[in-house]
Amino acid sequence: MTIMRMFLALCALGFVAGVVEDGSSFDVSAYPVKWDEDPSVGSGDLAAPPSPGTEAPAPPPKHHMMVKKGMLFLERDLFAGALLPANTRLGYVRRSSSPGPVISSTTSPVPPFRYSSFEKILKFYNVTHGSKQAGRISETLQFCEEAGDKEPHVCATSVAAAREFAATVLGTKEPRAVTSTLHGRTEPLRYVVAPNGIASVGGDAVVPCHPLAYPVEVFYCHNPSNVQALRVQLVGQEDPSVGATAIAVCHKDTGDWDEAYFVMLNGSRGEPICHFMPANYLLWL
Q: Which of 13, 26, 114, 17 lies closest to 59 in space, CA to CA?
């Protein structure tokens, strides 16, 4: 699986956008990644069907990917004073009405995290067969088994497992995790990049971990090449007392990315594209 196809797959499953809101991996993402059979889009959205003559992306071809602009940005568009799109969301709202997974009352052991155990997983977590949740579980399991070997990666079924993977690929016994952090009880309508608010974090190697759609905590962790991690200080446009310390990852080699991304961002093919990592993501350094 190429890096571009893997990125498309992550977008399709919500991994790039953020999934968890209250501990349930099936809630609305912080950055919505929508699927719609109608390729028409509204302001600020992107419809990205396969370009003529290019390999079709991993998701079903009848759908068109639509990604909110606040998620992705050109590296050159990140500077002190830059204004983020309205309603960019780096955190997640806890919903008291959203219960956690219901575990089967049987004494059966937890089913293995693999597609061949799909039916047992649905039964164990009391997920209705044919439901949207069941579909997301299926997509997650299949993605983890088809991710390929283009770069080191793992589907970690705990933070401890994610940390162990990061320690191995980064060559350190004590990897350090950083996350985006909100300052204040609410997020502003629009964020502004603070003066002197951009700094590199980590070295040449980092391990981003994206939450996956699953009844319990699971992360897709990988060690992409030719990327740079940033810490970005953001403040509210109208109220500087609220803001965020955001983590972003910039992909330096985008030569094989779909042309639709560059059209959406008013960029040129191959120039660096970055994305924020919402508060429920981990970046290991």
A: 13
